[in-house]
Each structure stands twice: as structure tokens, then as C-alpha cells.
Task: structure prediction
Amino acid sequence: MRLFRVALLLGAALSPSLASAQTASPAATVKPIAYTERTLANGLRVFALRDTKTSNVAIQVWYDVGSKDDPKGRSGFAHMFEHLMFKASRNLVPEQMDRLTEDVGGNNNASTNDDYTNYYEVVPANHLQRLLFAEADRMASLVVEPKTFGSERDVVKEELRQSTLARPYGKLFSTYLSAASYTRHPYARSTIGSIAELEAASIDDVRAFHATYYRPDNAVLVVSGNFDPAQLNAWVDKYFAGIAKPAGKIPRVTVTEPPRTAPVRYTVYEANTPLPAIMMTWHVPADRDPDIPALTVLQTILATGESSRLYQSLVYRDQVAQDAAAFLDSKQGVGNLIAYAILAGGKTIDEGETALSGEIARLRDAPVTAAELAEAKNEILTAAIKSRETPEGKARVLASSVIIDGDPRATDRQLAAIASVSIGDVQRVARKYLGAQQSATVRYLPDTAKPAGTTGDTIAVATTVATESLTPPAKVEIVTPAPDGVRLLPPPPGAPVQAAVPQPIETRLANGLRVITVERHDLPLVTAALVATGGGATDPRARSGVANLAAEVMTKGTATRSATDIARQIESLGGAISSSADRDGAAVTVTVKSDQLGKAMPILADVAIRPAFAQAEIDRARAQTIDGVQVAMKNPAQLAGLVATRLVFGDGPYAAPLEGTPSSLKAITRDDIAASYRGTWVPSQAALIMVGDVTPAAAAALAQAQFGEWRGSPSAIAAVRPAAVPGRRVVVVDMPGAGQAGVVVARPAITRADPRYYPLSLANTVLGGGFSSRLNQEIRIKRGLAYGAGSGVQARRLTGIVAARTQTKNSTAPDVVTLIVGEMARMGAAPVPSDELDTRKAVLIGNFGDALGTTEGVADVVGDYVVQSVPLAELSRYVGAVQAVDPAAVQAASKSLLDPKGASIAVVGDAKQFIEPLRKAYPSVEVIPDAAVKLDAVSLK
Result:
């Protein structure tokens, strides 16, 4: 979570960029967050943000302690401690936070950053008191005992293996970035830590850490959503005011990172590196520094969106990189501007470094343009509005400002300062902070590229980094669970607050195009999505990926606009345009401030109706997609999912990868793309969806003006037919040296129109939907075998798929296969107890509500309904349909659709560590070397 702060400030501005000489419109500004503040006698700061338009409430507790505070020899400690906070306290049993949140339709989670650890929940508003009780209890009286300590430490080690060791470029971002950036400050240590230092931590360390840092005067409580202010104050006083403020001082990191006066360079060689990568970092001041607004604008010009400098030069024009980005990682102390590029196939690390450093030099050497400056400001403004769409989002913005900057208004002040940033300011901070002598560079190469006789550089935390041993308070209380009869129970929930369900208004143009409007006028924001039925299911068998490639190229030029024109024009409005394909449909989407909607719609229409499909753009997109596929095929979890999909669908329309394969992509011609487009993009099988600050009348007028003359013949999507269901197979893809094994157990499911849709959805949620699901309970919570385990069901126009999946140590892959298969079988063997089923119903209903929390979320849900031919009235009947499912229906659906006897198994990992135990259970297992996998073929080889 090192880059969390920049995400809070920029939000969606981590994706688009700008360049037209427009200025931010005063009609669409970001209102300051309205809050009340008080501080309890024990030092706890309490912020309340009331919003009666929602039926939910967000509760967040942020502690001013992060990975920079990890004790000496204990890197990763603050993060591991975060995990333990979800175990027992004096009055809460292990995992009761999940009972209080997930089981009532809410959610909870936490994150560890360099500077803080935060815990957050969203629940129906009538459960607020229960969560205040729980947060206070774990602040005051955490129980740490050996069994859960050992189990959760194992979980964290699996998280490390998953995020750092198994994932391509995991070491680059998780460990090398921080170690290369600092020589004195403990920011040098990675948040996730190391296996050795996690093993070195003791239970006494944990107890001392809680006593030292988890105290009211080191915390911020934020409550945002629908609540009664007087009642909130009374509950806060009841549960938090009695927590004692310890006498000792809170330890603080005071070391200062010295300026970098000479460039630092490393070249490393790592396994599981599909393409070389280059990363460069420069120190920037603390987030409260007055130069941060100018640096924020600089980062946006450099790397936000397809009109940004890095995308235009490295990815689009010169095709040096398949991905290039930059982040402003500002902190309480010295932060970093980070720029990186993952190179395109065939490009050298020298070419990548020259291109990346060249763009940084251009910022220093020449002023940015007025158009770039205006575009960046508009993008930042739109992103700030989006970050405040939900109670949770507003709470995050405020709490981050308090913890990072010591000022709840810091983000509002930065936004105001950004409006005043000048061209000269941008060049000034580029020269001040981004000098060549101030850079740290990591050249990240495949181990197969290592020259004979060389070892490459080692990037380790410098011995000069200052860390301190944990000095516990004079007295550390060992808290034990309260005995039965003494243990305080959470208070009962209050009266439910009725959730508002979006009410779509639909009209139809003469050409058959549906126009669907959902009004939301609380923020000046609109998402417009044009969706059409077709998609990857229509791909010819030898041309998998053609629908996806067609969607990708739609935004890369029309008869009157080039790809760069499209990016610059839409991003100059502060918006972002994207196009994508799914199995059954495709979409072009734009989100803009509502005062810019009239300017954005002609661009959206041009992209959708008049794509040029220029050969140069096709070739460019094809090369980038092939590079992306190659990266995915080096990730054990992703490859296991692709293999399992082929095993389930055989030669059917959903079998091949949606993005295609290297061989299928190379075979695709412009005629193939044009034919795919014509088969999908027809007004009679499309809908224009507008969600947000727009009226149905205005939406209809815009639709008529931009799409009224659109014509097209009905397509051949009705000719898409499912193939015969193949027999069960067990396939191992051998990936020597893989950091983990990806495991997927999958089988055919149902169509979306099947009446068993809701019973199967509930059965899947019991099996693997959420932290409290059976799979996660068995694999993560009870045994510590994985960071997480779950399942998902895809019900589509044709028969879809249900898949259970996890990642685990290579040696335990057979164990988790056995656990998954056993839990799938158990679903059909006995009815789900009513109380368990009720909690899973709440999960489904809560997830549905979350999806409707933003304009983009509503557009996605409505778009899925359009593509799957689901009546829009389903929005209103969804909750009732879920609640009406009984245990008998769930068991019946499980017997026929979760029976593991009909499931195929895919395991991708270092086969020598698990193949023999797996072969004993499945003698017919097939083993395929990872280099020989052919996802185009039913045989996979």
C-alpha cells in the first residue's frame, strides 16, 4: 500500500491525462468536505461526516504507525500486526469483525502504509453502534495468543510469496523500490517484510507493539454516512472515552533522509521476468510541503492517461514500452516521484532507460504547454470529485489528510493550490527535484539475460538505515478473553435504514438504440457508457482476441480524429475514455464532470460509430497485447485461470483467452477486426447508459443528436452456439522456480437466464464468496495455507463457469486441491444452515449495493443487464429474489452445479514439489511444461 496516498489525491487520475487549452470550469468544483471534529480527553480525535442520502455508514480508525516504525530486525511487523487485529479481543472472538460486517451485508478491511495503519468498515447504518463497540474493544484489549499468532504469520508469508515472489516484477515494486530509494530513513524497508524477519517476531513483540502504538492519542476515528449526530457522540463517549491514555510518549521516527547528490544505479537479474523493466526514483518533500501541488500537476502531465508524455512517447509513438507510468508517493517525510517502464518485446534496457530519462529531462529543460497545464488541472478536479462519491471515499480523504499532514483540510488546501500552479511552477519543481544527479535507477532483467561470469547487483536495505529496537512500556498487560457470562456482547442493531435503488428511465431512438438514464445529482459527475451485445463469444476459433483487439483500437482513431486527438480532447475535459470487450458484449465509456458532458458525447459517438481501424494502430495494439499476454502467462494464478477455462469449455465460444494468444493475435487481420466490429456495434443491439448529474430529457436529446443517424444491420450473434462439454481433466503446468502454485477447480455453470441463477449465486457465496466463506475459512483462517481462497460464478448468454481458486506454497498445492474438492462436495451433501445462508444473502445484497455506489458502478451493472438480456426491473427485484431463496434450492443447485466429479483441475507451479502427492490422488494427471502450453488448443499442447 505504499502508493495509497497518491491514489487518495488523484483517484482516477492514475489513468487518464490532458492537453487542450481549456481551463477548469468553475461550474464543477469540489466542495470542501463538511465535518465536525472533537477530541476526547484521552486524545482520540473524532471526525463525523453526515450524509442522509445513503443507507450505509463507514467507520474508519487510522493509527499513526506504519512500516517505518517496524522495530529493528522486524521488517513487515506493522503489517503482520494489522492481520492480528482481526483476531480476538477481550469481548470479541476471532473473526467476529467479519460477523459484524460481512455477515450483515457490509465489508471490512485494513491496510498498512509507510506512515499509518488503517482499519475500515462499511455497514448498513443501523449497525453503527456495533462497530463502534468492536473498534473500541480491539483498541483497548487485543488478545494475542500463540495459535492465532502462528497461523496469521503463515498467512502473511503466503501474502509475501503471492505479491512478491510469484508475481512478475513483484520484487521490483515490493522490495527493490524502497531499498534503492533510501540510505538512512526506515522507509527503505518494504511494508511486507521478509520471511526471515517475520519468523523472528515473537508474541511478546506483538503485545509490546500494541501497548506502544495502539492507544487513543495515536488514533483518528472517522464516521461517515447516515447517522444521528447526538447519538453518535453518545456512543463514542460510551465506548472510547473510557480507554486510558498511557503515560509514556509515543516513539517517533526522527531521522532525516539526506539529499541524494550522486546518481545511484543497480542492475538486477530475476527469474519470472517476461520483459525487462526500468525504474527511476527521485526524492520529493513531505506531503505538507508547498511544492507538492506543483509536483502533483507535473506527475499528471507526465503519466496520467493516453495523452500523457510517457504514454505518447514510450508506449504510443516509439513503442519502447508496453507499459509506462509515474507516481507521486508523498509521505509524512521524504517521499519519491517514481517512474517506470516495462519494455515492449524486442526492446533493450538501454532503450528504455534513454526514453524514460529523456522525458524527465524534457520536463526540466522546457516549459510544459498551457494546454497540458489546463488538462492536468481538469483531470485532478474530476478525480477529486470521484474520490468523494461514497461515504467511505470521503472518510479516506479526510483521515489521510489528518494522519499524513496533520490537517483535515490538507487535501482541500492542496486542490485550491493546484488551481494556482503555473507553467513556471512545474518547471521549477522539475529542476529542483528531478535532476540526473538526484536519481536512483533500477534496471530489472530476466535471469536468462545475465552475462556469463556476472552476478548482478544486490539491492538490500542499507546498513546505514536507522532503526530502533522496540522498547515496550514498563507494564504490558497480557489480555485474555473474558469468560462466558462476563464477556460483553455487541449491542443489537437498530432499525434498518431503507436503501434507495436506482430507477432507470428508458427511451428508444428510431434506429433501435436504447437510451437508459439514472439520475444522481449529488455530485457534478456523469458516466456515459455505450454497450453492445456481441463480444469475444463471436471470435472465430483461429482468431481468439479479435473482439478485444477491435475494442482496443476503437479509441485509437476515427475518420476525423487521430488516437492522440481522442485522448487529448477527452482528457482536456478532465475525463477518461475507455473501450473494452467481454465474452458477450463490448463497451465504450467516458466519465466527465457534468458541465463537460456536451463536449464529451461527440467524441464518444465518433469513437463508437466511425472507428478507422488504421493498420498502424492495429499493429501497435497487437504488439502491446502480445506483451501483456506474455506477462500474464508468467503469473501462476493467471495462467491457472486461463488453463481451467480451456479445460471447462473445450472448443466452445468461451474457451480461448478473451485477450487472445500470441499465435491467434498474429493471425488477426484488419478485415477480421472490421467484421467483428460490424457484428457487435449495431444500434438495435446497443444501449446508451447515462448515470449521474443528467436528466432523462437531456440524455435523450444528446443521444438523438449524436446517435440518431447511426445505422447498422443485425449481426450474427444468434448463431453462436455452445460446444459439447468436455470430460474432466487434471492438468499441471510445470513452472520451475515459481514462487507459488496457482490452483483452480472449475466446472460448467448455467446461463444467466436459468431460473437457478439466484440459488447458484447463493451457493457460490457460501462456498467462496467473502472472507467468511467456507473455502477461506478452511484454507486461510484454519490452516494458513494461502493469503485468500474463494470462488466465483459467471452466468452468461451461454453456459458459464463456476471456479474455486487460490494460491499456495508449491508443496501444499495437493492439500488445497483436496480442501476445495471436499468443500464443493459438502455443498450438495447437506443443506446450508439457515443462519449461515442468511449471512451469505447479506453478502450478496451488500455487494450489490456497493456496486451501485458510484456512477461508474451503476453503469456497469445496467450494462451487464443489457448485454445479458436481463430486464431493468431486476434492479428493484434483486434484493427480494436473493431473500426468497431457501436452503433446499441452494442444496439442489449445489448437487447439480458444484459437484466436483464434474470439475476439472488446473495447477500451475513448480511441479517437482507437488506432482507425486497429486498423482496419487489423480493418476490421470497431465503435466505440461510452461513453455509448451498452447492455450489455442483444446489439448493445451
Notes: Residues 293 and 415 are 8 Å apart (CA to CA).
